[in-house]
């Protein structure tokens, strides 16, 4: 087919306007690149395919990092959230995480508005059917209506759309997500180019009509008061919050589910894609945990001005008649009407092992992949990758060195390193347990870790950067003030000393020493330290964590320092592993297949032994 060449040439072309595509396109345009975003449906920009929520365990960390780097997700949820909560407040700071319910339609509309206002960013509705590759480099994309757009770099963020196949019971039909067309042709071309294209699966629950739910029989769950924003740039959340409701399945629900398994595409062997182990469907849970007689669900409102509710944890691909009976077996949902049925979707993804740490593909220069196309699952995972792909494509256009976050700097770094080093055979989602330096990678210090990077590439504006510098300075000043401020036994309030087990105190203690005591918080310190009471909450939080966890933090910093030597040693792309004596055939084969960018990555490939890493290190040194 002949294509009509569009008369403009772009620096960056982004394919797809999901959570990865939005961050990628905004980053590239904000960094000065003429950017084109092509997507199948302009009304579905940043649409939440599944749960109407942002954040959660480890995902909240990703959002904070995206925000610190100058991305949009945190600001978007702050403006459109309808319930905000900090999870794990009783646990240590490393695992505390923010989560917010979103008004799904407002979230999408605000993101579309931001993109439309963005200078240098063109939005166009079109399905991309192929990429243009010349001399091993991507040069543009072709669209279904026969237009060829030329671009210096291309970022693919196709989500669940490539050869998407929707299943409800034994009925199935092509779709990128319920109500959206699939993307056809693109993954075949990628396979022809040598990419390893695989098949994954995910699922979503039904959407329920709130007018038919008996909320009086359910337990409400409210947000935090006051709500805490995601973005380091949001001062406060003003909009009122709405509750979610807790409900439970019961033995009858489970019997109904079991009775429908013979018509489940999953159990009848119709679905070939691998599903998310950590986000199983309700039929999976009932089969895998037969001893459990109930499963919890949160009924989450999809927005302020809609009656639709999302029952979290109840995704299914069972036939619609089984869905009717199953949802209605739950207390409070006896008369519930389903507005949109639950379904599963299978889609093509590309093995991320074929990517550099910059998210550029190893096979085609200037082509980047980000989001669910890389085998991940989740809005936040997608947005984090989209942002990094956008930054790196823009840096390529500007002729500057790429940005790669390492595992000690960010969860985004951990995620990308996991993907490009180990690949994935099942939907990958972020967990705090994936990070070896958890205590360094906290939500609260994401700005201290990453604001500089965001400012350096041009995504963090001068005003936001100034506020950050002031905060950092105040933290430093307060830390040194607390080292000098003293509690003198002769002048101290005896009741205070008694309360904290210091009735027999002989020598003066610095306020830093006091804060180190596990039972004494900053708030309590304010009772005897009037200057501390004037310190802003964000500075207080940081100072308190840095003092209380100093020993552990220093230990992790030591480990990072020791690992840095290996991490930082680059391996040239054309490195000849076959010529290195001493490597086993298995190790050689793995290294040739994975082509790690650094010695650190090589050390994480399964089967590459410490001895092999030592041999590699010597060979790299000899090469100079
Ligand atoms: P998407 O949000 O899927 O966006 C892809 C974008 O690319 C769309 O705008 C689409 O129109 C566009 N596009 C695709 N192909 C083309 C093309 N050829 N040309 C032009 N545009 C194109 N995540 C979870 O964390 N937990 C869950 O339980 C969960 N369940 C899910 C259930 C379902 C049914 C679905 C569909 C998704 C689910 N997800 C879940 C995944 C979540 O929606 C994604 O992880 C996230 O949206 C991925 O973001 P993305 O930007 O990579 O892709």
From TrEMBL:
This is tRNA uridine 5-carboxymethylaminomethyl modification enzyme MnmG. The keyword DNA damage does not apply. Homodimer. Heterotetramer of two MnmE and two MnmG subunits. Its main location: cytoplasm. NAD(+) binds at residues 275-289. Residues 547-618 form the tRNA uridine 5-carboxymethylaminomethyl modification enzyme C-terminal subdomain domain. The gene is mnmG. InterPro entries: FAD/NAD-bd_sf (IPR036188), GIDA_C_N (IPR049312), MnmG (IPR004416), MnmG-rel (IPR002218), MnmG-rel_CS (IPR020595), MnmG_C (IPR026904), MnmG_C_subdom (IPR047001), MnmG_C_subdom_sf (IPR044920). It comes from Geobacter benzoatilyticus. Keywords: Cytoplasm, FAD, Flavoprotein, NAD, tRNA processing.
């Amino acid at each position: 087919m002949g294509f009509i060449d569009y008369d403009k040439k772009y620096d960056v072309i982004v394919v797809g306007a999901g959570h990865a595509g939005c961050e990628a396109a905004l980053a590239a345009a904000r960094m000065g690149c003429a950017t084109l975003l092509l997507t199948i449906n302009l009304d579905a920009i940043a649409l939440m395919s599944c749960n109407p929520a942002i954040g959660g365990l480890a995902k909240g960390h990703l959002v904070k990092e995206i925000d610190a780097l100058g991305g949009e997700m945190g600001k978007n949820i702050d403006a459109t959230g309808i319930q905000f909560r900090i999870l794990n407040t009783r646990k240590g700071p490393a695992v505390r995480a923010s989560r917010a319910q979103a008004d799904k339609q407002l979230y999408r509309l605000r993101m579309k508005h931001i993109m439309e206002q963005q200078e240098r960013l063109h939005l166009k509705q079109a399905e991309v059917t192929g990429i243009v590759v010349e001399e091993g480099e991507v040069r543009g994309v072709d669209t279904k209506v026969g237009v060829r757009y030329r671009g210096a770099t291309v970022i693919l963020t196709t989500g669940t759309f490539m050869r998407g196949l929707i299943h409800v019971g034994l009925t199935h039909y092509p779709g990128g997500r319920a109500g959206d067309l699939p993307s056809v042709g693109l993954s075949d071309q990628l396979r022809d180019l040598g990419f390893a294209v695989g098949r994954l699966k995910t699922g979503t629950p039904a959407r329920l009509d709130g007018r038919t739910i008996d909320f009086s029989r359910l337990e409400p769950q409210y947000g935090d008061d006051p709500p805490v924003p995601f973005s380091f740039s949001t001062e406060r959340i003003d909009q009122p919050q709405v509750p979610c409701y807790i409900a439970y399945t019961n033995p009858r629900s489970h019997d109904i589910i079991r009775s429908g398994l013979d018509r489940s595409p999953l159990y009848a062997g119709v679905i070939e894609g691998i599903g998310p182990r950590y986000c199983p469907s309700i039929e999976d849970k009932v089969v895998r945990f037969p001893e459990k007689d109930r499963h919890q669900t949160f009924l989450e409102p999809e927005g302020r001005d809609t009656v639709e509710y999302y029952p979290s944890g109840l995704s299914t691909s069972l036939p619609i008649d089984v869905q009717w009976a199953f949802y209605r077996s739950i207390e409070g949902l006896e008369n519930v009407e389903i507005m949109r049925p639950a379904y599963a979707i299978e889609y093509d993804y590309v093995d991320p092992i074929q990517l550099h740490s910059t998210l550029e593909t190893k096979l085609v220069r200037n082509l980047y992949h980000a989001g669910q196309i890389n085998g991940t699952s989740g809005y936040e995972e997608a947005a984090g990758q989209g942002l990094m792909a956008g930054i790196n494509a823009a840096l390529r256009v500007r002729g500057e060195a790429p940005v790669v976050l390492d595992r000690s700097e960010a969860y985004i770094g951990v995620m990308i390193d996991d993907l490009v080093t180990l690949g994935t055979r099942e939907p990958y989602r972020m967990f705090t347990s994936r990070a070896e330096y958890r205590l360094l990678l906290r939500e609260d210090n994401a700005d201290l870790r990453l604001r500089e990077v965001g400012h350096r590439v041009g995504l963090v504006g001068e005003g936001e950067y100034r506020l950050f510098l002031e905060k950092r300075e105040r933290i430093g000043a307060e830390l040194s003030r607390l080292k000098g401020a003293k509690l003198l036994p002769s002048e101290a309030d005896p009741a205070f000393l008694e309360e904290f087990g210091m009735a027999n105190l002989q020598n003066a203690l610095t306020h830093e020493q006091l804060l180190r005591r596990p039972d004494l918080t900053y708030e309590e310190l304010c009772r005897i330290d009037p200057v501390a009471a004037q310190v802003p909450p964000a500075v207080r939080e940081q100072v308190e964590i840095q003092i209380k966890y100093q020993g552990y933090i220093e230990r992790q910093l030591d480990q990072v320092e020791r690992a840095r030597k290996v991490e930082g040693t680059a391996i040239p792309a054309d490195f000849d592993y076959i010529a290195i004596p001493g490597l086993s055939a298995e190790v050689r084969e793995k290294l040739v297949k994975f082509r790690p960018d650094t010695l650190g990555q090589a050390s994480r490939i399964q089967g590459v032994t410490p001895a092999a890493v030592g041999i590699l290190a010597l060979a790299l040194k000899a090469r100079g």
